[in-house]
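Hi Y.,

Following your request, here is the sequence exactly as I used it, all 342 residues.
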Amino acid sequence: MTDSRAGEIRKIAQGLFAEGKIELFLGFQQGSLPLRSRPCFVTAEGAAAGVDSPLVWDSFCANNLAAYLPKYYENLPNRPKKRDKPYPRIGIAAKACDLRSIVALTKEKQVRRESLVVVGVPCRGMIDTRKVEAAAGGQEILGHEEVDGDLLRVAVRGAEPLSLPREQVLQDCCLECRHPVPEGADVLVPGQARKPGDGGYARVKEFEAKSQAERWEYFRSELSRCIRCNACRQACPTCWCKECFAEQTDRKWIGVGTDASDKMFFQIIRIFHQAGRCVECDACYRACPMGIDLRLFTKKIVKDVEETFGYLPAFDAGELPPLTTFGEKDADSFITDPDKKG
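Below is the corresponding structure, written out as tokens. Let me know if you'd prefer a different format.
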């Protein structure tokens, strides 16, 4: 089944190029493997040459494209403080979580919102390839087809095709998402979004109910599989530091190997860096080749910040993150008495 939103995105991108409003468009194209759509970069030169647009939109456009934006706006080494050429004009096809990341990056001055054209796509949720692969029993998947928007048909080597209800194989972050509509996009693609979820805090509350020893043991067990490939860091749209603390050689924080303490320290710092910044897109979880349950830990940080400061990173570019502001009435019990409730 062809998603009509793909045609709308192509039409919008072509119009933006024709009007000279952008010189680059970030979207998705068909992947080389089943169950995959991959990031695509369409240039003004390619559009002007009449090259057929490869842009697609389906249930596998899961990558958070905002992760690519900071590179286009950074000042290069040895370049004068004042930029010697204009910032690039970029169009981007954005789900709501992508746009939430763009807003966060704008607040942190890593992206120039005025030079972006955000083409918002109402999100029906993205399919979790791991769930599909589990349903296939580990057998090779040869192809897939979306049927009527509610069913995923999967061809499996040496077995009968699978027909999976779409809702059954959606990513957990999509099932829980409270903001499926990209509010504040410059152009909104026609289409229906899924109903907002409940935020997914039930699992975090189960984790919180465990004893401190049980929580630590779960964290230690999950992180024992970490191979320090840094895929979680690279996929995260708000991990934009030019030099990660984990790679500093002057006053080195941790080793580069897979020693248990180094792995846990790396993830603890990375997770805490997401306080007030994580948009729950699950890019880190999807990127992890070891399937580590990173989403529970980042979700815990999201919940703590929302409950303590009443802040959830969404679409309001004027609302400052709590860790960049200070009020005399701010509670400090999370520092002085972290186990205290309320």
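Residues 294-309 form the longest helix (16 residues).

Thanks again,
Q.
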